[in-house]
Structure formats: C-alpha cells, structure tokens
Amino acid sequence: MSDARGASILFIPHGGGPLPLLDDPGHARLSQFLRDLGKQLPRPEAILLISAHWEASEARITGAARPELIYDYSGFPEESYHITYPAPGQPTLACDVQRALVGAGLPAHLDNSRGFDHGMFVPLKLMYPEADIPVVQLSLLSSLDGTAHIEMGRALAPLRDRRLLVLGSGATYHNLQAYFSGRMDRNAHLAFEDWLDARCCDDGLSDDQRQTALANWPQAPGGLHCHPRAEHLLPLQVCAGMATGPATRIFFDEVMGELSSAFLWQY
Fold it and tell me: CA separation (Å) from 111 to 127, 214, 233, 260?
C-alpha cells in the first residue's frame, strides 16, 4: 500500500463481538487480515473511529483523555470481559471533529464520559496491539439516515489532509436473524456485495454519484436483506462522504461463514 501523507479512510467488518480476539475459527481470516493491515498502512498520528455500536440523536464525540472500555456484548467467555486496550484519547482531535461538524451546520457534542465500545477495541487490538495511537470515537446518528451520514462525512473532509486513520467499523452483512435461523439468501447477499464494490470502487463514478448511491442503499439489490437495520453499514457512508475518488476493496472473504468486504481510500 502507498505511503500516504494524508488520511487513510477505511471501512472494515469487525466480526462478531469479541470473537476475532478469541481465536475463533470463523474469524481466522478476518483476524489475520487486521493484523497484517496494521503493519501495511502508514502509521497514523491518531485514529478517528466510527463504530456501529454507538448511536445518538446528534453527533457525539469521545472527549476524555483516557476513555474506559465498554464490554457491550453478552454470552461470551469470561476472558472476553477482561480484554484490555489502554489506548489514549485525544481531546484536541475531538474538538477539531466537533468544530468541523458544527461548522457544516451539524450539531455535535463532546462526551467526556463515553468509553470505547467493542467496535473500537476488537479491531484495533489486532491492528495496533501496542495501544499507543490516540483514538477518538464518533457516534452514528440514531435516525440511521444514509444521507445524514454522507453529510457527516463531507463535513469531516477538511481532516483528510492530516495523517489520520479514519476507521469505519461495522459490516457489509448484518442480518443476525437470518444467519442464526438458517434463512440466508445467498443470492441477495452476493448481489449486495457486488453492488457495494461497484459503487465504492468504480472510477467512472463522480463523488456525488457514489455518495448519492450509497445514501440510497436500501434501493440496492439485496440491501434490505443484508441490513434489516442500517447501523452496521452506516460507518461506510461516513467514510464515503469524507473520501474523494474510488476506494479499493482490500478484503472480500468469509467471516463466520458469510462474505464481507473492506474498503480503503488513501491520500
């Protein structure tokens, strides 16, 4: 991967709860991908992370210097509630994110009590195990509106010139009811993965065309089957709104037996 001087904007699947950290066979390929990725990307000065596991009516940003971890999952082995990842926050970056959003007319608030959820610490513990890169986490909007999340990304575009990793942490497939009941529609799933790849990576699309298509993802073939609820896809919309030009799909492999994708923009 190129030695980018600006931001790396990345969307990844973060897997099921803490399983990527527990040597789960269904996550072996994802876990190895994330370990390798942390070595391949230009080392960022800080990480801005958008997790599927934090929603608020208006944008909220972790503002503490030392956020604690939130073990926001249940039914896993006892060891998964003792995972550590003591990455620092970065209040100055949090303020910059807030200013960028407010400057674009989007209400945004610092949250000095909110910790880091597993959408943050699971992938980052694999990518950057030393936990020595400051992290700021940005919430989704509870409206779950695609256009609103594209607009959030556009507001953050001035940060693209900084040596940041902007990390959208979610999944391109998240229909747990169909997965656990065995009612997966494989054709719908593959159709949606192909649609995402085409919209994110086609260099024939303008930024506006790409972003408009992603904002209207429920109209895509297989979209509503793959995402009965939008929260695991919307970090991608924030990334795409912030980015310019096409992405590269850098992961397309099985996670818990189902395919999922990762997309990267570099500057």
Answer: 25, 29, 23, 31
Q: At what angle do helices 207-215 and 186-201 cross, to 10 degrees?
A: 150
SS3 call for 137: strand
Q: Which residue has the tokens 């009612």?
A: 183
Encode pLDDT of 241-258 as tens digits: 999 999 999 999 999 888
- For 234-250, b/e burial (b = at least 16 CB within 10 A) is bbbbbbbbbbeebbebb
pTM, 2 dp:
0.96
- 105: Cβ contacts below 8 Å, ≥ 6 apart: none
Single-letter residue type at 40: Q
Q: Which helix (H) or strand (E) holds 35?
A: helix 28-40
